């Protein structure tokens, strides 16, 4: 019997790792190359900006919509499969849609349905792997690997084969994601209750939860200059676009290593201690970028701190949510974290730094503002999460 359970656990790990790999491979396609795809179709910069803003809006409202359905029905995996299938159909339609309004609706639909996937996968993964310390980070690292692989290779394919290569890669990855989701089983009742006994009567809303989401929003916002202008900044400093792309990949490699080691860190340090340290390191990261981006050892150090500014903060947030939110509200909590933290933060970040950047002349000021936003997250953490009596 023990052997059977072990075998199932290994298969769960493989399937969930595949789901993360393909989901974030799609992120690695969409984030860097959607604007390239639209440019090749003849869209001007204003049209591209308007479309990207609309897509970001879908990423804010979508998670709450789908997670409300998932929490009400308790069928998280069915919601994820439905969203994945509809997102796939929206991408396929781009092969023959020629009108701008048609493409806009298809891309908006893709992003709306696509947001149904990740919160549900996070809930299922945390429940299934709760009994295996540190395994969540290792499974989640597959997503970072998928991002690196596709963000590195997709540019070559699009350069050689044109705009349709973008759609073809997206469809291929979406089919793989759908296949993985079809293999994922809904957690058993025992898995759903794991680590939830002490918190089953806790209310959903709390000061600590508001603080966690606010910290997530502020930290994501603080990445605005990095996510929007890092490659352009490196080119201004004399790096090639290829070299700048590999510098970005270096940060993701550091993130992967962190996810593999996070279980060890959790066993040695208090959760909130790690969380607060990561917030401080995020602030330091942007100060380094503001002052010494042309000193390559400092630049490399700031990139390696991506392990803290994203990896540690995300892993700590997932662990905190799983331990402090009742199981019937897990999907809602994931949607709040994803939609408000990452969705709204990804909109606010570029909006804050864009007026300051001034074709690179305002790079220092932009990163100083980002450091200030990260410092504000530390204040919020101290006033809400670290002073809370909720469990770590």
TrEMBL record:
**PANTHER family membership:** 3-PHENYLPROPIONIC ACID TRANSPORTER-RELATED (PTHR23522:SF10), BLL5896 PROTEIN (PTHR23522)
- Got a GO cellular component term for this one? plasma membrane
Q: Tell me the ranges covered by the Major facilitator superfamily associated domain, including all copies.
A: 15-367
Q: Specify one Pfam family.
A: MFS_1_like
Please tell me whether the keyword Transcription regulation is annotated for this protein: no
- Record's keyword terms, sorted: Cell inner membrane, Cell membrane, Membrane, Transmembrane, Transmembrane helix, Transport
Q: What is this protein called?
A: MFS metabolite transporter
A GO MF term: lactose binding
Transmembrane region positions? Answer: 12-35, 47-66, 78-97, 103-121, 142-159, 165-183, 204-223, 243-262, 269-289, 295-315, 335-354, 366-385
Q: Where in the cell is it found?
A: Cell inner membrane
Species of the source: Neiella marina
Q: How does it sit in the membrane?
A: Multi-pass membrane protein
């Amino acid at each position: 019997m023990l052997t059977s359970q072990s075998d199932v656990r290994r298969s769960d790990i493989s399937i969930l790792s595949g789901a993360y790999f393909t989901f974030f491979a799609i992120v690695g396609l969409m984030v860097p190359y959607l604007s390239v795809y639209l440019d090749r179709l003849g869209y001007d910069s204003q049209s591209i900006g308007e479309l990207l803003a609309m897509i970001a809006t879908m990423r804010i409202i979508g998670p709450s919509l789908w997670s409300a359905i998932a929490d009400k029905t308790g069928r998280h995996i069915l919601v994820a499969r439905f969203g994945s299938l509809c997102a796939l159909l929206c991408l396929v339609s781009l092969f023959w849609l020629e009108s701008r309004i048609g493409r806009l609706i298809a891309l908006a639909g893709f992003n709306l349905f696509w947001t149904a996937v990740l919160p549900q996968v996070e809930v299922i993964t945390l429940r299934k792997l709760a009994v295996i310390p540190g395994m969540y980070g290792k499974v989640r690292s597959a997503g970072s690997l998928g991002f690196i692989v596709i963000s590195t290779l997709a540019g070559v394919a699009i350069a050689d084969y044109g705009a349709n290569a973008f759609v073809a890669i997206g469809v291929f990855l979406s089919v793989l994601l759908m296949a993985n989701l079809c293999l994922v089983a809904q957690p058993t009742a025992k898995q759903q209750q794991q680590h939830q006994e002490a918190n089953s009567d806790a209310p959903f809303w709390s000061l600590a939860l508001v603080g966690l989401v606010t910290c997530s929003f502020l930290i994501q916002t603080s990445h605005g200059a990095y996510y929007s202008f890092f490659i352009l900044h490196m080119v201004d400093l004399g790096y090639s676009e290829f070299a700048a792309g590999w510098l970005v990949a270096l940060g993701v490699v550091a993130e992967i290593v962190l996810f593999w080691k996070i279980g060890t860190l959790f066993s040695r340090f208090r959760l909130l201690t790690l969380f607060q340290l990561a917030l401080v390191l995020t602030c330091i990261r942007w100060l380094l970028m503001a002052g010494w981006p042309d000193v390559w050892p400092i630049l490399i150090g700031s990139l390696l701190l991506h392990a803290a500014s994203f990896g540690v903060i995300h892993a700590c947030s997932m662990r905190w949510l799983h331990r402090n939110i009742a199981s019937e509200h897990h999907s809602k909590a994931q949607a709040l974290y994803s939609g408000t933290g990452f969705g709204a933060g990804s909109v606010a970040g570029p909006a804050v730094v864009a007026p300051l950047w001034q074709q690179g002349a305002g790079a220092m000021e932009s990163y100083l503002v980002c450091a200030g936003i990260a410092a504000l997250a530390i204040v919020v953490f101290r006033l809400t999460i670290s002073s809370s009596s909720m469990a770590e």
